[in-house]
Amino acid sequence: MDDGLTLDFGGLAVQVESSDKAWRQLAAERWRGFSMGTERGWTRKRPSLRVVYRVVDRRTPSPRALEAARRAPLRTDPAAPTEIVGVGFRGRFEPRPGVDLEVEGIRALAPLDRLLQLLWTRHRRGLILHGAALVEPGGARDHGDRRGWLCTGPSGVGKSTLAGLFPHHALCDELTAVRVEQGDVPRIDSLPFWRGRPGSAPLAGIHLLRHGASHRRHRLSPRQALAALRTEVSWPVPDRDAVERALDALTRLVRAVPVWRLEFRPDRDVWHELTREAA
Amino acid sequence: MQSTRPETMFRRAPHTAWRQVDDETILVDLAGHRMLGLDAVGGALWHHLDAPRTLDALIEHVVESTAKGAPKDAVAGHGIPGRESVGRFLEQLVALGVLEIEGRDPSSESVEPTPRSGSPEPDGAGPRILWQEEIAQVAASCAFLPGQNALCNSAPFS
Q1: Helices and strands, number each (H, E), in chain B
Q2: For residue A32, which residues of chain B lie inside 8 Å, CB to CB?
Q3: Contact, A199 vs A141, CB < 8 A?
Q4: What is the pTM of this model?
């Protein structure tokens, strides 16, 4: 087993190990933007969590097997209730001292992509939303108190388009972790889905995106926001405690930050609308 | 229907999570990957199912809550639900797999869930399932083998 790579996953330093060289190469390629390797020069943070991935089937997975691994619902195993089971893999949290997550699965990264989200929800108060994270311009790593925005909505509404319009502002374009601590301003942490770089910022607002002929937005009530956002949450099913914490977090989130419905056309003028303070 | 007999005991399925949000109860079916929104009366029933209860006990609780108002004030104003509407609501939850009947194998439940989202009760007294949503997986992983998916591009934006 090698020392593995250390990944910045929503502000958690996760050391990922595998004895399978091909899997390690996949991981290094997939997560290179979020690797906390010393060559990037910006991290001396020690890993806080340790993940072990055991490849139990060394064949190249078929497209069908990959599709099942990435999409089939996760469930608990009735015979082993502490295990999370997907198609082509199973994972156990804290199987032994010093290991926070152990996964046995096919030679692919999809299983870990999914289980890392559950790992985050076990260690952070908050939730993971289907959205791009953008911040005010500044340094690449430490965004300090620069404001951040979450731009969310179903596939096709323009998350990646928006991130691509503002490459210096975008942290990630698909999934963003939102920390919602009692009494604190919620914070966004970028996640390695799909393009992006590590970063964090206090959350100034959430935009539910929609393509339109012009830039226009209107604010949603907390109740409207909750209804609109709940389909954009990566719910940590089947972990009951984590789901209930995520429900709490979503309820607090829609009361703590403004949520807007934003229509936009794909040009950079939208930045003004996006960052405008609430009236 | 057998499930609405007075002696029938209802209990929450173990694979459920829930939270009350204002006057609505959000119920998550962890096995069925579905979310339900229960109205105030439905939520009051659900919260009273902290132990197995009979239909009569549940009706009595809702009637008492309605009469008292606070602290179950969310129930007030909805009128007093009748046995029929409570029974129908519980059957719906059983059919959806989030409620179980003691002594019956949940997998043997043959009642088909009736789509009720937003449908008004004839007596306007609830309890009701306000909405149902499937828990869809957002952002299904692209990450398997390099080159197999154009989205799987971990390069930074700049």
Answers
A1: 3, 7
A2: 154
A3: yes
A4: 0.87
